[in-house]
């Protein structure tokens, strides 16, 4: 999906919500465990219940590959089931030497037809560029993550006072464009989103950490907004496990709608719709 289409979808759905499909066999309702493919059955119901309120879906690959070939099959069925007007993100956090990265890109952009894949930038340019060779596909670089461990490396400063995440943003922005490169910026880092937006004014951000991790939607929109909206805000557990009973899909839909309504207010206030 290209950027113009993504922006058009945000306007049409009045939402910049990404639903994270972190489908955990230990958390899904027990009655689904007797079905042939519990992960797919769960995802199907979640997608049906949330598709009117979001613009993107983000399966985290860990929750699928831990089940071996069957997990990959559930993932592929899920991807095929997601409506074609949705932006799809493989949250895989890949990146390796160039010739290996080429095969990761093949996995997520050819074998699986995802729109985007998340990449850890630690191995540098040749680990990222093979993904950028695909037309209308996106790389989403981990810039400033939402977790506690982000403090271990990402805020380290060099002798000029530049933080590592700032260096990552400046350097990687030269390898792609706002048409094929996004950044992961955690909602839990509201005070730093402003700095990130200054360094990369035109790129979209994928923002996890909202909901279960306590990040604020209002702060994210205040500091991360750009003229294209520029935000895909993810919630996984907060939506998926709103209930673990027979009504799980209905409750997930209600939660997604509640978030969409908050986003609609922001989009109207910003004059975007
Ligand atoms: O900095 C990061 C990068 C990725 N994630 C992923 O996003 C979701 C968040 O799930 P919630 O249940 O909404 O907390 C999950 O897949 C993480 O692996 C992140 O949280 N932070």
Automatic annotation (TrEMBL):
<keyword id="KW-0665">Pyrimidine biosynthesis</keyword>
<keyword id="KW-0210">Decarboxylase</keyword>
<dbReference type="InterPro" id="IPR001754">
    <property type="entry name" value="OMPdeCOase_dom"/>
</dbReference>
<dbReference type="GO" id="GO:0006207">
    <property type="term" value="P:'de novo' pyrimidine nucleobase biosynthetic process"/>
</dbReference>
<dbReference type="Pfam" id="PF00215">
    <property type="entry name" value="OMPdecase"/>
</dbReference>
<dbReference type="GO" id="GO:0004590">
    <property type="term" value="F:orotidine-5'-phosphate decarboxylase activity"/>
</dbReference>
<dbReference type="InterPro" id="IPR011060">
    <property type="entry name" value="RibuloseP-bd_barrel"/>
</dbReference>
<comment type="similarity">
    <text>Belongs to the OMP decarboxylase family. Type 2 subfamily.</text>
</comment>
<comment type="pathway">
    <text>Pyrimidine metabolism; UMP biosynthesis via de novo pathway; UMP from orotate: step 2/2.</text>
</comment>
<dbReference type="InterPro" id="IPR011995">
    <property type="entry name" value="OMPdecase_type-2"/>
</dbReference>
<feature type="domain" description="Orotidine 5'-phosphate decarboxylase">
    <location>
        <begin position="16"/>
        <end position="252"/>
    </location>
</feature>
<keyword id="KW-0456">Lyase</keyword>
<protein>
    <recommendedName>
        <fullName>Orotidine-5'-phosphate decarboxylase</fullName>
        <ecNumber>4.1.1.23</ecNumber>
    </recommendedName>
</protein>
<dbReference type="GO" id="GO:0044205">
    <property type="term" value="P:'de novo' UMP biosynthetic process"/>
</dbReference>
<dbReference type="InterPro" id="IPR013785">
    <property type="entry name" value="Aldolase_TIM"/>
</dbReference>
